[in-house]
Design a protein that fits this description.
Helices cover 29% and strands 17% of the residues. The protein is of the alpha+beta class. Strands 2-4-5 form a three-stranded antiparallel β-sheet. The chain is elongated and about 75 Å long.
């Protein structure tokens, strides 16, 4: 993942989504990163330098084996960026807070499976054994 002062939130969103298509992350304003409500969510057009003027341009690999909580903590501690990871669940996005101990790979897999449809023929039960 490449973070630069001139990167937008959308740029980071796109990079993350390319690696984990059934996850996405939202950014929250610097002062209210703990209170991660929709009212504190920042626009995808926001520059990273507006969230952290001290940000140093960097490139790092997001390991699929890192847990969501470790990833969110790293983004906060190393880059002063407050994020929340969401997982796809059928047609909606769920905060992963209850499963933050899962790896990004496991979360992404769960999101993928939630979008699958199965074409299974119905079973007609007509013979019962009664004792």
């Amino acid at each position: 993942m490449k973070l630069t002062k001139k990167s937008t939130v959308q740029d980071i969103f796109d990079q993350f989504n390319a690696q984990f298509p059934y996850l996405h992350m939202e950014f929250y304003d610097h002062e209210n990163g703990i209170d991660q409500t929709q009212s504190h969510q920042v626009s995808h057009q926001t520059l990273l330098e507006d969230l952290n003027p001290e940000l140093i341009d960097t490139v790092f690999v997001v390991s699929p084996e890192i847990t969501v909580s470790e990833f969110e903590k790293m983004m906060k501690d190393k880059y002063q960026l407050h994020i929340q990871v969401f997982r796809r669940s059928s047609d909606i996005w769920l905060q992963t807070s209850a499963t933050d101990h899962w790896t990004l790979e496991k979360q992404n897999g769960k999101g993928h499976r939630s979008t699958l449809t199965y074409d299974i023929d119905p079973i007609t039960i007509s013979d019962f054994d009664v004792e």
